[in-house]
């Protein structure tokens, strides 16, 4: 039987490194985060760090993929199994805000990458994830429209943009204030305003 322990150790190191980057991005500007600081955070030398990630671009792509998987996988899945499409949208909205509160480095890293002029691998991963995620929101809105839960004339593309914009606004305000808990506190009220604007008027 082959010994897979070296592979397992390497995989764990990679996972630990990605988690450290997300944590550090929550504490400082991602653009200023050096590989030396990352290596120190996980008790490795820079040389040892580069055994797991050939360069910083590769590391950043891995971090972006982790964030993308959270959005398109775990968070998007919270919309499944609910009694109605709008209930699914509510669950997904609150799960997304909860993720931001627990991992403030994620939105900081995403915003930083999206603002870069070059089309890096990390930026591409994030942009693709946002496209998939917005598509999921659109699907739920279309289903809600078919079920008569939202206005028949709803512009679902614009509504999806507004939905994401509300989450991003909560994230930015919380980051600016330095109190991530404010995002979780305000999220249900912000969501209620969004839902009130798209629901089918009661006769």
UniProtKB/TrEMBL annotation:
Keywords noted in UniProt: DNA-binding, Transcription, Transcription regulation
Residues covered by the HTH tetR-type domain: 11-71
Gene3D superfamilies: Homeodomain-like, Tetracycline Repressor, domain 2
UniProt-recorded name of the protein: TetR family transcriptional regulator
Annotated Pfam families: TetR_C_13 (PF16925), TetR_N (PF00440)
Species for this entry: Marinobacter profundi
KW DNA damage (keyword) present: no
DNA-binding region: 34-53
Family annotation (InterPro entries): Homeodomain-like_sf (IPR009057), HTH-type_TetR-like_transc_reg (IPR050109), HTH_TetR (IPR001647), Tet_transcr_reg_TetR-rel_C_sf (IPR036271), TetR_C (IPR011075)
GO MF, one annotated term: DNA-binding transcription factor activity
